[in-house]
Design a protein that fits this description.
single chain, 672 residues, alpha+beta, 14 helices, 29 strands
Length: 672
């Protein structure tokens, strides 16, 4: 798809601007001195074609860079003699850059917004014979006004002040309408005394008749449109509003221009705001649900109005909406609520509310799979069944969200009808509010990551799930894996690679009543914590090796703390208990024989399910052996679960129990 699908500009309008530039009779523009020449600008445009979407990670297409090239192009037109072909190329470059600034205004820098607003308003004056220039000029002056409204004289440098003066003076000299608010703020900030006989005020006196969206009781007029164009944020909701306003009145003189701009912004949103698996890059449930609401609102509206102008990215939007909803369905908990994800997440977010808000029947998206993976977002879901009381674990193995909160390797646990382990959902949005691991009471930020993370492992079968992720920093590496025997319990395994002695803390946020009679029961010597919520399901947490482990309880925050030499590992059994259950499993450490350079763990979990044996190597494929009830278990591989003669092995090839060889493969398999 080319830029032509996202512009209303025609060849003849390029000719009009080329003719305007050729006359060189615009006042004030001769003051601009070019730094580069036409050949340099032309070469740049050939090597860097104007992108359809906002390219915030590519410096040449930052707003300030685009604005600077517009000023440079204007200066070239007044100082360099160009032939007709050159003038037309220059005009084309200027028009494409102007539409880019008109369409996109997303940047955190007020100075950058001001530079872009000035360049847009200036081109709106120079291009006055072109119909699109009216909206460019209005939008540009509105953006200038908004930035100057928050500025003080010291924040506007000499160069920017000169550009402002030139732009306002040119509009005044050409008797073009200027927003009164922009004039007042320009005079105030730059200590000027500009007066004009053609200022316009809100409410704009040349608005078309108001437009009403009866479904949302929203009135749109030119005031609304200019304000939305002046500050199109949040990006998705403002673009939705602009799109609905444009389609509500197909006879409006700005309709085609607005729809084209809206289509280009939606194309940018589709391409840039979401991972390929459909989840918002903010990694926030609120952002995801709001995006679904806006997309479905716009698409429902679009399907129910008569329109002359098609939307270039319509099919892309429909496809993305399906992915957005499917991503949410993938994350649903057994009671159809959502886990607490991202900043300011609502703990009561529910799939039926999403359905009502988006007018989508979630049951149409019902999945046959139990466990699910979203590798780009880094979300992994383990499920023991589809019933309301089924077990469920949500694991975040992905990158930090755009808001900067790094929840990588945190998880939440739901079982038997309620949340057992959750994110704290704090308004402070700290990493320590999540179920994570701390080293020396802090958590370092991750190193830059590849998306999806190639080191993440995910295996799902009808009998078990396994997920493994890494948190990599400059000082240490943290690997966390969770092994789930479906319908039974979970094994949490943390490996910390580094040097010297450190304090290690495993943090769990329990969903427990803080009243004294329901505080968890802690048996420190055995490394055990048991929640005690009456008439509800509970959770048994047990450190496999409680030696030197201190258990701390602060409100709902449970911490398993130890001081140890790195590298080190910590294994914890997470065993959901049904309502009123008074029996919990017995966890025992096993002595493991292996090579001297292998860090290995061995333990048993004895419960009503049977005696389960685990052997884990943190150095990959290794020879390990142990004794269980006088029988020797020999295993060659990385991870073993054994119950009687039933077993699961990861990266393994050989298993012998007592005199019986249960498996002997030529090569190790990912899982067996």
């Amino acid at each position: 798809m080319s830029l032509r699908d996202y512009t209303t500009l025609q060849s003849e309008q390029t000719d009009v601007l080329a003719s305007t530039l050729a006359r060189r009779d615009m006042p004030f523009l001769h003051q601009f001195e070019p730094i580069a020449d036409f050949e340099e600008l032309y070469t740049f445009s050939q090597e860097h074609p104007t992108p359809i979407v906002f390219t915030e990670n590519h410096p040449p297409w930052h707003l300030v860079s685009v604005a600077a090239r517009i000023i440079e192009g204007i200066a070239i037109s007044t100082h360099e003699d160009l032939n007709p072909t050159g003038r037309k190329i220059l005009a084309q470059i200027l028009l494409e850059h102007t539409e880019y600034l008109y369409t996109f205004h997303e940047t955190a820098s007020q100075n950058e917004k001001l530079s872009a607003g000035i360049a847009l308003a200036l081109m709106g004056c120079i291009c006055e014979p072109i119909p699109q220039s009216e909206l460019w000029r209005l939008t540009g002056f509105c953006r200038v006004s908004l930035v100057l409204g928050e500025a003080v004289p010291s924040t506007v440098d000499t160069h920017t002040g000169h550009l402002l003066t030139t732009t306002f003076s040119l509009a005044n000299a050409l008797d073009l309408p200027i927003l009164k608010t922009a004039i007042d703020r320009y005079n105030s900030v730059l200590k000027q005394n500009l007066t004009t006989g053609n200022d316009i005020r809100f409410p704009l006196d040349y608005t078309d008749s108001d437009i009403t969206d009866a479904s949302h009781n929203t009135v749109y007029n030119l005031d609304n449109l200019v304000h939305l164009l002046g500050d199109p944020s949040p990006a998705i909701s403002s673009t939705t509003e602009l799109g609905i306003a444009a389609y509500l009145n197909p006879e409006h003189r700005f309709t085609e221009q607005l729809i084209t701009m809206v289509s280009r912004r939606f194309k940018w949103i589709v391409d840039s705001f979401f991972y390929p698996d459909g989840f918002h890059k903010d990694k926030s449930l609120i952002s995801q649900i709001e995006a679904i609401s806006d997309f479905s609102r716009f698409l429902n509206f679009y399907e129910n109005v008569k329109h002359t102008y098609p939307l270039a990215c319509l099919q892309d939007m429909k496809t993305l909406l399906e992915k957005q909803v499917d991503a949410c369905i993938s994350l649903r908990q057994p009671d159809l609520s959502f886990p607490s994800i991202g900043q300011n997440s609502r703990s009561n977010a529910h799939i039926t509310k999403l359905s009502n808000k988006s007018r989508i029947d979630w049951k149409e998206y019902k999945r046959t799979e139990l466990s699910d993976a979203m590798p780009y977002t880094g979300y992994y879901v383990m499920r023991g069944g589809s019933e309301r009381n089924a077990q469920y674990l949500f694991f975040d193995g992905g990158p930090a969200g755009k808001m900067g909160l790094n929840e990588k390797l945190s998880f939440s646990l739901y079982a038997n009808g309620r949340q057992l382990i959750t994110h704290k959902n704090s308004r402070h949005n700290r990493s320590t509010d999540n179920t994570i691991l701390l080293i020396d009471a802090k958590r370092q930020p991750s190193e830059p990551e590849i998306i999806p993370d190639p080191d993440t492992r995910w295996i799902t079968t009808t009998a078990f799930d396994f997920v493994e992720g890494w948190h990599k920093t400059t000082d240490y590496l943290h690997k966390r894996s969770i092994f789930y025997i479906k319908g039974a319990y979970f094994i949490l395994h943390d490996l910390i690679l580094g040097n010297a002695e450190h304090q290690i803390e495993q943090i769990f946020h329990l969903n427990t009543n803080l009243l004294q009679d329901t505080m968890p029961h802690i048996v420190a010597a055995k490394g055990q914590t048991i929640t005690q919520n009456p008439e509800q399901s509970n959770l048994f947490i047990c450190s496999v090796d409680p030696t030197n482990v201190t258990i701390l309880m602060n409100g709902s925050r449970l911490t398993y703390q130890t001081q140890c030499q790195l590298p080190a590992n910590m294994n914890v059994v997470l065993f959901p208990l049904e309502t009123e259950a008074d029996k919990h499993p017995l966890v025992k450490t096993l002595s493991v024989e292996t090579d001297a350079d292998v860090l290995a763990s061995g333990f048993t979990v004895i419960s009503d399910y049977g005696t389960d044996v685990y052997l884990i190597s943190d150095d990959g494929y290794a020879n390990m052996s142990t004794k269980v009830r006088e029988e020797t278990v020999e295993f060659i591989g990385e991870y073993l679960f054994l119950r009687g003669e039933h077993f699961v092995m990861l990266n393994g090839r050989y298993l012998k129990v007592g005199p019986k060889v249960l498996l002997d493969l030529d090569e190790p398999r990912e899982y067996y």
